[in-house]
Amino acid sequence: MKPRVSVVIPFYNCPYIEQALQSAISQSWQPYEIIVVDDGSTLHAERITPYLPYIHYLGKANGGTASALNHGIAHATGDYVVWLSSDDMFYRDKINNQVLFMEQNRLLISYTNFNYINGNSQAMELNAAAVFPNQLEYLRCFLYGNPINGCTVMFKREIFGAIGMFDEALPYTHDYDLWYRAILNGYAPVMLNQSLTAYRRHEGMGTLRHYDVIMAEAAATSARYHAPLSALIASMGG
C-alpha cells in the first residue's frame, strides 16, 4: 500500500500562503491530506479561501509555530508528516523523492538540501545546506548550531511517540531542540542531498526580525544538550 503523507502548514499573517499551498497541491506524489493550522491570524486569511476544498483548515488561538505544528501533527493521519512554512515552497518531487528515500533506508526522520529564494520567488542561493563528510562531523555541528532546515524534514509519524512533540516553550528553537532529542534517542535525521524545498528570505521573516533573541535561545538549547551529545560523540570515537 502506498504510504500516506500529511503536509502540515502553520499559518500566521503570511502573504505567501497561496504559493505554499499551490506547491503542496501540485506534488507529483499527492499528499493524503494538507493541514493548514491558522495560529490566530488577523491578516491574509482570505488568501486561503480558494483552497478550502483541498485542505483541512484548523483554527486556533495564537500560540506560536511549535503550538501550530503540534496541533497539526495531532490531527494528522498519514504515515509520514512534512512541515511546510507558509512562506516557503516545495518543489514538485519533494514528497516523492523523500518518501522513497525514507522507505528504502527504513528511516524515521530525514531532511534534504534546499535553495534560498527571495520575496519574488527568485533563486538566490542553490544547495544551501551544509554537507558533512561523516557522521561524527555532522553530530559535532549540533554542538555549535542547527544544520537542519526544519521545512526540509520528513517524519514517520510514529517518531513523535518515541521522542515527543515540539517544545512549545521555545518560540524559535523548537526544531533544534527536537533534532537533539531525535539524535539522543538513536534517530539522528539522515540527509537526502537533493534541494527539494525553496526557503524564502524576506524582510518580514522572524529569523531576521528576532535574530538576537533567536541566537540567545539557540545558545541555551545547545547548552542544555551539550553534555549528553558530547558523551555520544565520545562513545563513537570522536
Keywords, separated by commas or semicolons:
single chain, 238 residues, alpha/beta, Spore Coat Polysaccharide Biosynthesis Protein SpsA, Chain A, 8 helices, globular, Nucleotide-diphossugar_trans, Glyco_trans_2-like, Glycosyltransf_2, Glycosyltransferase involved in cell wall biosynthesis
What is the percentage of strand-forming residues? 15-25%
Question: In CATH terms, what is the fold-level topology?
Answer: Spore Coat Polysaccharide Biosynthesis Protein SpsA, Chain A
Q: By helix and strand content, what is the structural category?
A: alpha/beta
Q: Alpha-carbon distance between the termini?
A: 41 Å
Order of helices and strands: EHEEHEEHEEHEHHEHH
What does the average pLDDT come to? 97
Radius of gyration: 17 Å
Family: Belongs to the glycosyltransferase 2 family.
InterPro entries: Glyco_trans_2-like, Glycosyltransf_2, Nucleotide-diphossugar_trans
Domain Glycosyltransferase 2-like: 6-161
Organism: Paenibacillus silagei
Describe the structure.
- The protein starts with a strand and ends with a helix.
- It has eight helices and nine strands.
- It is of the alpha/beta class and 238 residues long.
- Helix 1 links the parallel strand 1 (5-11) and strand 2.
- It has a single domain, classed as Spore Coat Polysaccharide Biosynthesis Protein SpsA, Chain A (Alpha-Beta Complex), CATH 3.90.550.
- Strands 1, 2, 3, 4, 5, 6, 7, 8 and 9 form a nine-stranded mixed beta sheet that branches.
